[in-house]
Amino acid sequence: MNQRPSFLLDGAEVPFEPGQTVMQAALAAGRYIPHLCYHPEFTPHGSCKLCTARVNGRLMAACTTPAGIATEVESETEELNDLRRTLVQMLFAEGNHFCPSCEKSGNCVLQALGYDLGVMTAGFRHLFPDRPVDASHPEILLDFNRCILCELCVRAAREVDGKHVFSLAGRGLGKHLIVNAESGRLVDTDVKVTDKAVEVCPVGVILRKRVGFATPIGARRYDQSPISAQALADAPRPLERNHD
Amino acid sequence: MIDVTRRKLKVATTSLAGCFGCHMSLLDIDERLFALLERIEFDRSPLTDIKHCGPCDIGIIEGGICNAENVHVLHEFRANCKILVAMGACAVTGGLPAQRNHLDLGLCLQEVYLTDPGVAHGMIPNDPELPLPLDKVHPLHEVVKIDYFIPGCPPSGDAIWKFLTDLIEGRTPKLGHGLIHYD
Predict the structure, then answer these.
(1) Of A20, B118, B133, B137, which residue has the fewest beta carbons closer than 10 angstroms?
(2) Following CA atoms A28, A34, A39, A40 in sequence, which dihedral angle do they give, to the nearest 10 degrees?
(3) Nearest CA to CA, how far is B98 from chain A (Å)?
(4) Residue B53 forms part of a structural domain
(5) Quick one: closest CA in A to B136, which residue?
(6) What integer best gives the mean pLDDT of chain A?
């Protein structure tokens, strides 16, 4: 029987398959590393940095780091969770995330991460940018106020829907989500309400109209259990392999 | 930290740029109010109608800072309270009133008092008794040091109870899953 290669995550052994990232191997082994822009179905983006872990002593994004180069990984430390709390605060500060009036509340990944990491305060002066919504599409609302530039919609449209609907434009603080239409309006793209890109938004930017409160506040996804528990329950696992 | 001998702790509360929803939520601890009153007594608070705060152990503030009077009250609380707590979304982030922050204050006032339909012979109020609105709405920690934050719009009665019992017993207050909420 061959010994599978492995690395140490917070002192516990995590086996991996060749080609897996640190994140994939950890989740498959039932070990949670906080993450936001990582989604098991799409190419890792490595931009939100929530999954930053100390890999062989260096800070690296667990979602883009090949498991093959890792021997020792630290993730669940006070230092790293402090950095993660700061990142969540920065994401909240940059947009207009007004949870009390957001229909995504309770199903929102950013909010759930704040809860799970124990983010109790704003931390930074909020920027209050002026970002008009795009309600042009009859079935889909685009509320740019909540965009965190994770590119999940961009990746889902490209990799699953085979379309080019969304993109990020501009740089630095001016970076923002745009849609691929000359008018700049969603109604003039080929997006469909059934597209993966519409379903995948982790925050309340891309919303199906007229179903916002079908599930009441209090009975939503992250009301049931914290995101750390759900990410593990949802993690794709390789088929049990006892013998190679 | 708080002296945890059985002396009753003095607690002051107020609502600044808030809606009193957090105070309603405080009342949602229901019969636990009796247990709480074994350990604390209220100083300045909407519950006692005392107008100014004396030396207190804990000050609990709902609402953010939207006008000049809010700033004075907040300074009074900070000067008198050993521990100052921001309660609710508005106190923690600015909340609903801060939704005007990307707009020009003058245009807001014009819209509400001059151009909005239904306003006949309107004028922007300028009675000297009215506190002047601030250009932007601020969370409390941008004006004074805040020791603890309870997010939520409003935080549930259970969250407020957990927070207060932790604090009164001398533990670091900690809200777990189901009690920490931003909505």
Answers:
(1) B118
(2) 0
(3) 8
(4) yes
(5) A128
(6) 94
Q: What is the mean pLDDT of residues A128-135?
A: 95
Instruction: Note whether A125 contacts B86, CB cutoff 8 Å.
Output: no
* pLDDT, tens digit, 9 for 90 and up, residues B43-99: 999 999 999 999 999 999 999 999 999 999 999 999 999 999 999 999 999 999 999
pLDDT at B122: 83
**How far are the Cα atoms of A176, B98, B159 from residue B28, in angstroms, in the given order?**
42, 26, 10
Q: How many helices (H) and strands (E) does chain A have?
A: 7, 9
Number of structural domains in chain B: 1
Going A92 to A95 to A100 to A105, the CA torsion angle's sign is negative
In a domain? residue B162: yes
Residues of A in contact with B94 (CB under 8 A): 126
pLDDT band at A234 (very low <50, low <70, confident <90, very high): confident
pLDDT score of B5: 59
Measured between beta carbons, which residues in chain A are less than 8 angstroms from residue B142? Answer: 125
Beta-strand ranges (E) seen in A108-233 are 140-142, 166-169, 176-179, 206-208
CA dist B32 and A115 (Å) reads: 26
Q: Domains in chain A, start-ordered, CATH in brackets?
A: 6-76 (3.10.20.740), 97-224 (3.30.70.20)
- Asked if the structure places residue B181 within a domain, the reply is no
Contact between B94 and A129 using a beta-carbon 8 Å cutoff: no
Taking each helix axis as running N to C, give the angle between helix B32-39 and helix B157-168, from 0 to 180 degrees, rounded to the nearest 10.
30
Substitution target from A91, A103, A116, A126 for chain B, most B beta carbons within 10 A: A126
pLDDT at A242 over 70: no
Q: Tell me the CA end-to-end span of chain A in Å, nearest whole number.
A: 7
Segments forming the whole domain that contains residue B96: 9-100+133-168
pTM of the full structure: 0.94
Contacts of B102 in chain A (CB under 8 A): 96, 128-130
In B, what residues contact A, Cβ < 8 A? 86, 89, 92-96, 98-99, 101-103, 136, 139, 141-142, 146, 148-151, 153, 174-175, 177-178, 180-183
Q: What is the CATH number of the domain that holds B52?
A: 3.40.50.700
CB–CB contacts below 8 A, A to B = 67
Looking at the domain assignment, is residue B28 inside a domain? yes
Nearest beta carbon to residue A120 from set B139, B151, B178: B151
Q: Do B180 and A225 touch (CB under 8 A)?
A: no
